[in-house]
Amino acid sequence: MEEIILVGNPNSGKTTLYNALTKANEHIGNWHGVTVEEKKKEMRINGKLYLLVDTPGLYSLSPLSFEEEVSFKIIEEKKYKKIINICDRNNLQRNLYLSLCLIEEGLDVVIAINEIDKKVKYKVDEKKLASILGVSVVSINAEKKFGVEELRNAIKNESKEKTLPYLKKIDFSSVKKYFSTFSLKEQEIFAIKAFEKNKNFFKFKGFSEKEIEEIFALTPEDSLEILSECRYQFLDEVISECCQKADFVYGKNKFDKILLNKYLAFPIFILIIGFIFFLTFFSLGAFLSDILAKLLDLATSPLLSLLENSLGDSWIYYFFSDAIFGGLGTILSFLPQVVLLFFFLSVLEDSGYLSRVAFIFEDILVKVGLSGKSVYTLLMGFGCSTTAIMTARNMDDKHSKIKTALLCPYMSCSAKIPIYTVIGGAFFGAKNIFVIMLLYFLGVLVSLAVSLILDKTILKSQNQTFILEFPPYRLSSPKRLGNILKNNLRTFLLKVGSVIIAMNIIVFLLSSFTFKFQFVQDGSGSILESIGRFLSPLFEPLGFNNWAIVSALLAGLVAKEVVVSSIAMFNGIDSSALELVSSSILLPTSVVYFSSTASVLSFLVFCLLYTPCLASISMMNSEIGAKWTIFGVMVELVVAYVVSLLVYNIALAFEIFGFLSTFFVILGILLVVFSAIYIFHIVKKKRCPHNCQDCSRNCEK
Question: At what angle do helices 373-380 and 353-367 cross, to 10 degrees?
Fold first, then answer.
C-alpha cells in the first residue's frame, strides 16, 4: 500500500487534516508535543487505498528537538513517497520555509494552505504560487473539510523537479567536490545539508564524525545564515508576488497585555484554575454527581432486592452488592466531575491560553532544570499521568526528559478527585475547595522542589531549545468539544472502570475471607486485615494507623479511584452514596475512621504524592527505563511520607496550641534555618582567595 507523509509546522492544523482525510479522531492541540510519534491510518482516493502517516510538527529539515527528529527520520526513510505539506495561511512565510527545504531535496510535495481562523492575513494566488515552486498548491479549511476533495485529487499529480533560483546564488562548488562520486542532484542536496550544518542528516547517511567535520570545514562559518537569508529573501519575493497581505499581526492580541502582565499573569492563572475547580468539584460537578447517584440508586435497588431474596445473606450477595455494583457506583458517581475537568482543560487548550501559560512558567522552570516544554506535560498530568508521561519524550535533553516523566505523578490527576471530594468534604464542607486548590498547588511546589534537587545532584540539565508561538484566541467548536467529552467518557468507563471493578473484586475477596478461606462479613481476621495490620505501624506517625486505611492505600496502587470504593466497602456502604461514605468516616464505630483534621490532611497529602497507578509506572518504564522508574517510585514514597509527616505535625500543633503560637514557632524555625544557610554561604565564600586563577566562580571582595 502506498504511503503518504503529512508534515507541517506545529499549530498548522496538521492533525485536524489527518482526521479529515482518514476519518480518525486523534487528539488535536495548539502546541508542539501533541503528536510525539508517527500515526498511520488508511484513506481512500478514487477507490485506491493509501496509508497516511501523521508526523510530529517541525520547522525545517534541521531538527532541533525530539519531535522534529522523529519527523526528519520518517521523511528521510520514505522520501520517495508523496508528501502533503500543510501550511497555516496566517503564518505563510515561516511555513513555506519548510516547503522550500522539502522541494530542495526533490521530494514529491503537495502544499495545502490551511485557513485556521476567520481573520485571514494573506489572500493567496494558488496557481501563481504553484508555478513558482513547481508543486501543487491547494487552499483548504481542515476543520470544516473545505478543499479536502481538491487536495485528494492533487495527491495524484506528480511534482515537477525544479531547482529553486536562490540556490544558484550560493557557491556550493567546494562542497560538491567532496561528493563527486554521487549524482548531480545528490551533490546539491549534500551541499545544502553541509551549509545547514545538519549533522543528523549525515549521520543518517552513514558518515562518521570525522567525515562530518571534514565536510563542515569546507563551508563558510556563517553558511547556515547565508542559506537562511537566501531562502527568506526568496520567500519575501514569493509573498509579494502571490499574496495580498492584510494589516494585522497574527497571534497578537490586546488580551495579552493583561494575561501576560508580569504582575497579573500568576493571579489571573490562579483565579482561572480556582473557578474551574469550583465548577468541577462543587457547584455544577456536585449537582450532576448527586443526580447521577440518585438515578443509579433507582436503577440498582430493585435488582439488589431481587438478589437478596434469591441468595439471602450469603457471600455471593455481598459480592454483587459491594464488589460489582459498588465498583459501578464509584465510576458513575464521579463521572461528571472527571468529564468536567477534561472539558475545561480542553477549552483552555483550544483558546490558546495554555501556550501563554507555558510562556508564564518558562522562567521558573528553567531555574529548576526544566523548560517551557515541560509545562505541557505537567498540565496534562492534571488529567492523566499515564498520557502525560508519554509526552515527556519531546524533551531535547535526556535529563530533562527523565525529570519531567518523574514529576508527572506529583500533579494531581483526575483519578484523585473522588478522594478529595469524599474524604475532604466530610471534614471541611464548603471550605473543601480551598483544601483541593492547596493540594493541587502543593503537588506543583513539591514537583519543582524535587526537580531542583535532582538538577543540582544527579540529573543536571543542559540548555534546551524552546520555540513558542502564540496562537490567536479562539473558541472551541461544539463538535470538537463533543468529541473530547465522548473520548474521555469512553476512556474512563472502559479503562479506568474495568480496573476499578477488578480491584473491587480483589479487595472484596481479600477482605471477606481469612487465610483458611472462611467468609467473614465484617472483615475481622481477613487476609487484607492481616496485611493492613502488619503495615499500619509504619503509618502511625502520619496519623492514620488504621489497617483498613492502609489497605485502601495498597489498593490505590492499581488505580487511585479504588481508594474511595475500598473505604466504602470496608464501612459497608454503597460507594455511589457519596454523602453516606463521607459521614461514615466521622463515626468511631466505622472500620475506616479519621479522628482529627490533622490526620485527614496527612492522608490527603499522602494520596496526592505517593506512588502513581500501575499504568503510569508501566508508561514510565517504557519511556525512561526500569532503573529510573524504580528510583522515581522510591522517591515518591519517601517524599509522600516526609511531606505527610510535616503536614500532620504542623496541623496537629495548630489544633493543640492554636494558630498564633504555632505560627511563631514555625517562623522561628525558618529564620534559624535560613540564617544557618546564609552563614554557611558567607563562610564558603571567605574560604576562596581573591583573584584565584583556578576558581570557577567570581569571588567577592
Answer: 110
